Amino acid sequence: MDRVGLEPGNLVITVGLPLSGKSILARRCAESGPKIVVVCPDTIRLALHGSQFVGSAEPFVWAIAQTMVRTLLKEGYTVIVDATNTTVERRRIWVQMSKEFGKRVAIYHVDTDYATCCARNQRHGRLDSAIIDRMHRQFEPPAKAEGDIFTAAQVEKYLDESTDDCDVTDR
Length: 171
Description:
- With about 170 residues, the chain is of the alpha/beta class.
- The chain is built from 7 helices and 5 strands, in the order βαβααβαβααβα.
- The chain has a single domain, classed as 3-Layer(aba) Sandwich (Rossmann fold).
- Helices cover about 50% and strands about 10% of the residues.
- It is globular and about 35 Å long.
- Mean pLDDT is about 95; it is low at about 165-170.
């Protein structure tokens, strides 16, 4: 896949620990072309209840995210789900949804090491360290059977090359 899954109408999901760089990569992709949007459960949480996490609201957060993704895919958008997606179970809904649209999900595996994520968290103080610990312990790497897997480096290289190909007047 020359376009690292960013073809029109595709579903892309990020996979990685908190503070691994998933959101930065997703935003950069969204800025790379028309009709590429990011759906982020963290943003939905803030809009819904103003907090990072409220357990009782999680079913609503994910229902909203799934509705947004389906609606955007129906309209022909390329959708990037910016979430940790650390387990096969968490990714299953996106794999199934992609199949509903006759596509194969693209998986951006942002494989930043655990120590780096913890150091970033210590600097920013965003999460209780137990959350990163739990996600690290439960992490299941994405498998080819789930979708087309791209490393963050592959995606960055594609974005860098596509930017280099642009004429100054195109920017």
